[in-house]
Amino acid sequence: MANLDDHDEELMLLRGEVKRLRRTLNELTPSLAMLLKRRGFRVYKKEPSDDLLVPDEPFRDGFYANLHKYSFRLFLRDVIKHQERFTLEEVARYSTTRVIRTYLNYLNDMGLIKEGATSFTLTHRPVTSFGPTLEWYVAELLKREFGAEALWGVKFRRPAVGGDYDVLAKLDGSLLYIEVKSSPPKQVTDSEVRAFLDRVEDLSPEVSVFLMDTELRMKDKVVPMFEQALATRRSEPPAVVRIERELFGVRARLFVMNAKESIAGNIERVLACYFQGLRGQ
Predict the structure, then answer these.
(1) Which of 20, 47, 170, 254 has the lowest tally of Cβ within 10 angstroms?
(2) Are residues 104 and 204 in the same domain?
(3) What's the pLDDT tens digit per position in 125-141?
(4) pLDDT over 80 at 100, yes or no
(5) Cis ω before 237 (30° cut-off from 0)
């Protein structure tokens, strides 16, 4: 009888094979640019680097791995908030002093911050928000964990429906659009939800996700805003259904989720729901 270690090893091998097969399938299906072109979309701008808080290439794998941690992402938001000058105490709201000191040493070693006698300073300034770095992370996650072709910070010349498409990806010939919010639910407005739905209707992706980088509840404010926005667009609006925890879906095509547990795990659940829905058709 196989032991647990054997099962874990087999599971890792199977996941690796799935990634390999998905990369092969991506090579055999139309590119992301072609999927967009077929919808009448051509990329005007993409992946702006001005506001990106990402280290040079030798450090990027480790930085990407650290971004899996919610505490590290919260820490980076505070670093950006106090970028001109900050102390350890000013960026230690969400973790212990020991953990924050480790994070500060890590950023210092990569050259992202400079340590002075009594405080720290962000090396490359100004960085207006954590948003672009979070978009970069989600795009990298889709590439590394799901074998997708992905872009972030995409702009199109669309006079009727403007705004950025935070993350776009191609998965097995399907187009995925993720709107990424680094702010808490209380800062999300009705107009942002309506603008997201406008972009979804204009782009017509197979899968759309409204992702909030928070562990707070979505049911209290964000889900009702989606219900209200959908009600203004349809005489019989589709239901916003809880899939699990704070992950909600609309007809297995549009999803609202937070970062509880992990962003990667929640995206995996979203994709599973979508592909299971296709098999059920």
Answers:
(1) 20
(2) no
(3) 999 999 999 999 999 99
(4) yes
(5) no
